[in-house]
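thread: overnight batch results

M.L. [08:02]
morning all. the overnight job finished for the chain we discussed friday. pasting input first so we're all looking at the same thing
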Amino acid sequence: MNYQYLTKSRFKLALECPTKLYYGTRFNDYADQNIDDAFLIALAEGGYQVGELAKYLFSNDPITDDITIEELDYDIALTKTELKRNAGGRVVIAEAAFKYENLFIRTDLIVEENNRIDLYEVKAKSWDNTVEFLKTIKKGERKGEIKIDPNWQPYLYDIAFQKYVIEKSNPGKKVFAHIVLANKTQEATIDGLNQLFKINRVNNRVQIKVQDGLTKNDLGIIPLKVVNVDPVCDWVYSNPVKIDLEYELMFEELVDFLSNKFAQNERIWSNCLGKKCKDCQFFNPNYPQGQRSGFHECWKQIAKLDDEDLTQPLILELWGGKTGATSIVGNAINQGVYKLSNATESLYLTDSRVTPEGDTLDATKRRTVQITKSRNQDFSPYIDIQGLTELFEVLPAPYHFIDFETTAVALPFHSGRKPYEAIAFQYSYHIMDELGNIRHQNQYLSFEKGVFPNYDFLRSLRNDLSGVHGTIFRYHQHENSYLNHLYKQLIREDLSTVEDKEDLMAFIREISTPTNDNPDRWEPTNNMVDLYELVLSYFYSLYAKGSNSIKDILPAVIKSSEYIRTKYSQPVYATPQIPSLNFAEPHIWIQEEKGLNPYKTLPDLFSDIDKVRFDISDSSIMELNNGGAAMTAYAYLQFTDMPAEQRELYKEGLLRYCELDTMAMIMIWEYWRNLIGK
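M.L. [08:03]
and the structure it wrote out:
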């Protein structure tokens, strides 16, 4: 039966955590929060296009040459692979199938000739001259020891597994393994490279529509890098595999162990819990109702917690920021501290700490407040009123709030651009004056396919913010980092191409701080203020569960502030009182039935009529209420053929979502303003 095969994706899942091998089998009915994530990530990064483009490295015309095996059925795929391989001569196959005992793989690409098979694994990850797959430890007790770069480990074990299966199933062949990556050192030499490979998703299957008649000669220099990884595979085969088991196994021993357990549908318990559990996809938020929850079963089995314990905050919620490479949560779990209420200052208190004055929060005090409030189930907010009062005295009005939506795709839009160059495609801008009057002041969205938007984005932002009086707010580092990315792009531009280059660079210097990798240094004259850092210093709420993301801080603020709840539970937004650029009718941001979360009040992208009209059955992006969804929606607009009316609905959704991000900042600031009597 097909489900008994240990495939490369299941092998990778087991490396993350051996227990996931059991949870990830659909027959066991565990909740899986990542069902669509792989698709969304690949779409947003251009992963599907990279896979299709890579075929042109080995075939002049992959479609005419019919190199791809499309069949999903394992046995049919194996039969078709064998037929193609028996054709003789040099054979190129995409999605070739190989089986050895109860191991099964589908390869991205193979090239076979005589007794040689070259295996190519294609990834949308980027490569440059600094990449080292195997690194030598330079200090400490393990000095001189060689290890795999942890950032590359999942991909390299993946290709080692594939090479192993091919070698075992083809003992008379020599197998050479390669990884194909987006080459950040190579510029595209044609315009519209990304537009040559369009994406459609039908019945949850991805289909790439390649431009008719496309051949390798049409692509110019293909910005992909092929790297031989045979030395890495040799290292993998000859060293114990780091996996959460009580005993070490060599690669082949581990493969045998996992394949046998999987074939028997037998659960392998991990020997440890860790910080990684926080991101476990086999989590049912409605536990114990509904599907089984692997997360909860692990914590019951390994931490010996019961269902009552699991209703209380776990140590995973402890804020882990500003600790460098140290994992406070990981250290706590290693010491057997599983519940947040059992945590003590000894987990994170340092001798070098300088105690802040007054009620201002530093990292240590923030964690102490969190633990104390969690232990007492005290949901009243912690507020540094004196600090906020002083803050409002030094930060002048009017207040300008900005938020960017950005992406970085593998296939460049234009000639002269490299893979994964920064793209800033949208911003929103709210303003509050000294009297507290609020309006959605302006916005920008690059909507057309294949347009490199960065400099028009900057021109619009410069028109809005250059020379303004008052205080410009951002939330966290993202906006500052992206302005630095755009600055470095401008450095490479010629004045004949971007005539206002110097003006745009001067504007960036005006409102941002140079990052360490920026070749230029400057002192901004009207630097953006990071509202995130102000949250860390002056506000804590147990409702946010240790998170400081604006998506969690905003609902926490709303639950903490009667003033904000009262004001925005009324239809005051998108009225003359608070004008909006995207909401035609008065909008109520705070609704009891939406859990007091404004992001859940955003209108659906598609009505039931629209779903029928546009034949939309794919649920992967039905809502547009977070940054990942915005990035994915932009990718849809760039890479997918769709009716103009459907594109317009995505556009409207993007504009409304980004507008809420800056309105969320307004609500936080307005809450504090009300607290200090402004």
